[in-house]
Amino acid sequence: MDVPLEQLADVSEAIGRGEDAVEEQAWSTAREALDDADRLLDELREAYRELGQRERATLGAIAGPLRTRRDAFAARIPKPKAVSDGAAVHDPEQDAEPDAG
To answer: Distances in Å between the alpha carbon of 14 and those of 2, 35, 56, 69, 100?
Structure first.
């Protein structure tokens, strides 16, 4: 099996999209790109198991810097904020009968 260069290119492309999105503060797009990059990196880990020693060394040499780029842009994405539960506010208009006229 050869080094999966096409998969590496896909990872690089996803990371590039994420880096661009972070620069534009497009956080949803950045998170989507991060998810894509993570999925593709997982696929590379699976392919790694089937490679020979030489191919593993090549893949590791290329994937390492990609992982560093991925981690750098992921660190710049703000954590999603949860909406807090608030107490219900009573609205007196809800108690009133609607006007018939």
So the answer is: 22, 9, 22, 11, 59
